[in-house]
Design goal:
By secondary structure, the protein is mostly helical. The protein folds into 2 domains: 171 residues, Tetracycline Repressor, domain 2 (Orthogonal Bundle), CATH 1.10.357.140; 126 residues, Four Helix Bundle (Hemerythrin (Met), subunit A). It is 79% helix and 0% strand. The longest helix is centred in the C-terminal third of the chain and has 30 residues. It is globular, with a radius of gyration of 20 Å.
Length: 311
C-alpha cells in the first residue's frame, strides 16, 4: 500500500491500531513514559527544595515526551526503510499495512501538538523542545555519516543516546523553567540516569539470541558477541544505579536509595546472567522485559521514595 488517500477512515484507524501494537505499543510505552516524565518533574522540585508543581507541568511533560518517543520511532522508520524492505519485510510498512508517508505525516502532526502544548505552558520550554528536535533531525540523517556510524556500534550508541538527557532537560524544565531559578543543583544525576537507562533500553532490545539474528540487521550481540554485549548492558545498568544513588545522596536519603536500587536491580541482574548462560529466545524476551522493568522501577522509586519516607 503506497498511501491511504481515499481509504475508509475506519480502515485507516484499524491499520494504525495494528501498527502501534507492533511498532509503538502504547500499553507498554505509556506507563514507562508516565513514570519517566512524572519522575523528572518531581525530581527537579526535590533537588531544588521546592514543592512539586501543579498538574499542568506533569501533563505538559508527559505529552511532550510521548511525542518525542513517537517521533524517534518515526525517525527509525525513515532510517531503516531500505533495511526493512530487504531484510524485515514482515514489518508494517514494507508489508503494506501503512505507508511511510502516513507515518511521517503523523510524526509531523504530533510535533505541532507538542509545540502548542509547550508554548501554552511556558514559551521558554519550547526552546528546549526545539533543541531536542535539532538533535533528532541529525539522528534521522545519521549525522551525515551513516557508514561510519554503522561500522562502530559504540559510536552509533553514543550519538543516538545523547538525545535522552536532552529530553530529560525538557521534562525537568517543566518544573525549573517556570520557577525561574535555573537548573537545580544535582540535576546531573537525573540526566545521567536518563542517558544510562536509554542505553539499558537500547541494549535490552538489541541483544538477541543466536537463533534470531538476521543478515543485514545490526544488533549488539552480533557485533560484539553475547558476553561483551551483556557486559555493556550491565555497565549501563551500573551507571544508572550510581546516578540513582547519587540522587539519593543529594536528597539526604542515601541508604534508602542504596537498598531500593539494589533490590530493583535483582530482576535485571538475574536475567542478564540467565541469558549469558543460555541465550535462548525465551531468555532474550525476558532480558528485554526486565530491562524495561528496571527503568520503570528506577524512575518510580526516584520520584516517590521521598514522599513515602516523609510519611
Amino acid at each position: 500500500m503506497s498511501g491511504v488517500a481515499g481509504a475508509d477512515p475506519r480502515d485507516v484507524m484499524a491499520r494504525l491500531w495494528i501498527y502501534q501494537a507492533e511498532r509503538f505499543p502504547l500499553a507498554r510505552t505509556v506507563p514507562l513514559l508516565l513514570a519517566f516524565s512524572a519522575s523528572s518533574v518531581t525530581a527537579s522540585a526535590h533537588l531544588a527544595g521546592r514543592p512539586v508543581p501543579g498538574p499542568a507541568a506533569y501533563a505538559t511533560a508527559f505529552l511532550v515526551v510521548l511525542v518525542f518517543f513517537w517521533q524517534v520511532r518515526v525517525a527509525d522508520e525513515v532510517k531503516d526503510a531500505d533495511v526493512d524492505r530487504r531484510y524485515r519485510p514482515e514489518r508494517p510498512i514494507p508489508r503494506g499495512l501503512v505507508s511511510l508517508r502516513l507515518i511521517v505525516g503523523l510524526g509531523l502532526a504530533a510535533g505541532l501538538i507538542a509545540l502548542a502544548a509547550s508554548a501554552a505552558f511556558d514559551p521558554r520550554v519550547t526552546l528546549l523542545v526545539v533543541l531536542v528536535w535539532a538533535w533528532l533531525g541529525l539522528m534521522t540523517v545519521e549525522f551525515f555519516a551513516p557508514k561510519l556510524l554503522h561500522a562502530s556500534p559504540a559510536l552509533y550508541l553514543a550519538t543516538h543516546m545523547a538525545i535522552m538527557p536532552l529530553i530529560d532537560l525538557v521534562l525537568t524544565g517543566c518544573e525549573w523553567v517556570p520557577a525561574g531559578a535555573g537548573l537545580p543543583p544535582g540535576i546531573w544525576t537525573f540526566l545521567l540516569m536518563s542517558l544510562a537507562n536509554g542505553c539499558v533500553a537500547e541494549f535490552g532490545r538489541k541483544i538477541w539470541a543466536p537463533a534470531n539474528e538476521r543478515p543485514g540487521v545490526d544488533t549488539y550481540s552480533s557485533a560484539w558477541g553475547i558476553r561483551r554485549a551483556c557486559a555493556a548492558l550491565a555497565g549501563a545498568w551500573l551507571a544508572a544505579l550510581v546516578a540513582f544513588i547519587a540522587y539519593g545522596v543529594i536528597v539526604a536519603m542515601t541508604w534508602w536509595y542504596v537498598a531500593a536500587g539494589v533490590l530493583a536491580s535483582l530482576p535485571l541482574a538475574t536475567s542478564v546472567a540467565a541469558f549469558v548462560a543460555d541465550p535462548s529466545t525465551a531468555a532474550q524476551k525476558r532480558l528485554e522485559t526486565m530491562s524495561g522493568v528496571w527503568i520503570l522501577l528506577c524512575y518510580v522509586l526516584a520520584a516517590t521514595l521521598p514522599f513515602w519516607l516523609r510519611l
